[in-house]
């Protein structure tokens, strides 16, 4: 009975390590994002703080203007069904009064450019990471793109 119990514990531990390793494969390519990034915009400093937590890469984004700090959003890059997924958790309500998370699936990762896409989202439909952050997509029938030029601190 003791051997069966020990074997069960070993299998459980191995399964947990293997699951974490698979999850890590989906996010480890983004390890360069870890740390604190900032940029200046309209007299404010916009900050993104990235760190690993429970097999995902988590981000907290906030604005510092004078002595005021305002949370903008939370985001994560995680492994869902074997795919890298960028998830945006808005702090502000959308036009319909919702704050639901929005998922973007990794569709391309060429030349150190990582493109996440969700064609169903109103704006943006794509989030691109390439040492320069970009969001782009159609807004009111016109292509709109916003560049976020963060510098690592």
Structural class: alpha+beta
Helix content: 10-25%
Mean pLDDT: 80
The total tally of domains equals: 1
Q: N-to-C terminal Cα separation, in Å?
A: 55 Å
Tally of separate helices: 1
Strand content: over 45%
Q: Which segments are poorly predicted (pLDDT under 50) over 5 or more consecutive residues?
A: 1-22
Structure, explained:
By secondary structure, the protein is of the alpha+beta class. It has one helix at 2-27; strands at residues 35-41, 44-53, 56-65, 68-80, 83-90, 102-110, 113-117, 126-129, 133-139, 142-148, 151-152. It has one domain. The chain is built from one helix and eleven strands. Strand 8 (126-129) and strand 9 (133-139) form a beta hairpin. The radius of gyration is 19 Å and the shape is globular. The model is unreliable at 1-22 (pLDDT under 50).
What key phrases describe this protein's structure?
globular; alpha+beta; 11 strands; disordered N terminus; single chain; eleven-stranded antiparallel beta sheet; 153 residues
Secondary structure layout plus pairing:
Blueprint lengths: L1 H26 L7 E7 L2 E10 L2 E10 L2 E13 L2 E8 L11 E9 L2 E5 L8 E4 L3 E7 L2 E7 L2 E2 L1
Antiparallel strand pairs: 1-2, 1-11, 2-3, 3-4, 4-5, 5-6, 6-7, 7-8, 8-9, 9-10
């Amino acid at each position: 009975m003791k051997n069966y119990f020990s074997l069960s514990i070993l299998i459980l531990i191995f399964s947990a390590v293997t699951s974490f390793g698979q999850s890590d494969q989906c996010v480890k390519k983004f390890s360069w994002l870890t740390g604190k990034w900032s940029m200046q915009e309209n007299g404010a400093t916009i900050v993104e703080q990235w760190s690993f937590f429970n097999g995902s890469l988590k981000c907290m984004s906030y604005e510092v203007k004078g002595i005021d700090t305002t949370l903008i959003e939370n985001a994560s890059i995680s492994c869902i069904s074997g795919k890298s997924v960028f998830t945006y958790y808005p702090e502000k309500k959308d036009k319909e009064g919702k704050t639901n998370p929005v998922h973007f699936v990794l569709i391309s990762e060429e030349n150190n450019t990582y493109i996440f896409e969700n064609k169903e989202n109103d704006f943006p439909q794509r989030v691109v990471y390439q040492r320069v952050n970009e969001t782009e997509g159609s807004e009111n029938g016109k292509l709109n793109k916003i560049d976020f030029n963060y510098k690592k601190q």
